[in-house]
Amino acid sequence: MTTYGTILIPAPLEQAAPVLRTVCAAGYATTAGPGFCLVHPDRSVDGNNVFALAGPISAERAAPVLAAFQYDGDRLELEVWRDGVLAHRYDSWPGRDDEDADDVPVGADPAAFLDFAAGPVDSHRLASALADTPIDAEDKDVDGDPGYVWAQSLHWDVLRALGHPDQTIRRAQWDYFHMRGAPQALSEVLDGTELVVLGTAERPF
């Protein structure tokens, strides 16, 4: 499955863009509904992954940001940064890289993510998603194992529970490499005002 990394910022793109141009060495930024934007950094550049950028962005903007990294459909990691300081970390599968760690998600505190709500919060769905206990049958493992089949479905439910529309959630699961590799598809869903090119990245369309 697809790997992606994005940063959700509770600010319009035009307000966040000056800081993003300073901090991000290469990548794209997109609109993400009223009052939000997303950063899609080129993680192949040293020091330019979502977790490395989240702190400086939050410090420069004096506002919280939410960094997300979903690896190969297996694992979702989320970090909340405020004023340059890591305020909260979530890991859906801490045992993936550490055999001694539990498979129970770490950091499943719904209150930690409320700064990123775009509308009314579905508290039950948010808590269930973070606990890796999907509500919808189609997200459950067909073999009866607990948890989500795919980590991106978990991420989808977290953002859905925070009131984000489907279009924003889809964009929050775009990776820089997907965007660069599909310019025609990207141009069909974005206009020139909805995308900012950062650093050394080339304009995709």
Can you describe this structure?
With 205 residues, the protein is α+β, with helices and mostly antiparallel strands. The chain contains seven helices and seven strands; from the N terminus they run βαββαβββαααααβ. Strands 6-5-4-1-3-2-7 form a seven-stranded antiparallel beta sheet, with helices on both faces. A hairpin with a 3-residue loop joins strand 4 and strand 5. The chain is globular. The model has no long low-confidence stretch (mean pLDDT 92).
Fraction of residues in helix:
25-40%
The main sheet comes to: 7 strands, antiparallel
- Count the E strands: 7
Radius of gyration: 16 Å
Unreliably modeled segments: none
Give the distance, in angstroms, between the N- and C-terminal Cα atoms. Answer: 25 Å
Instruction: Estimate the strand proportion.
Output: 15-25%
Largest sheet strand order: 6-5-4-1-3-2-7
Content-based structural category: alpha+beta
List the secondary-structure elements in sequence, H or E: EHEEHEEEHHHHHE
Average pLDDT: 92
The rough form would be described as globular
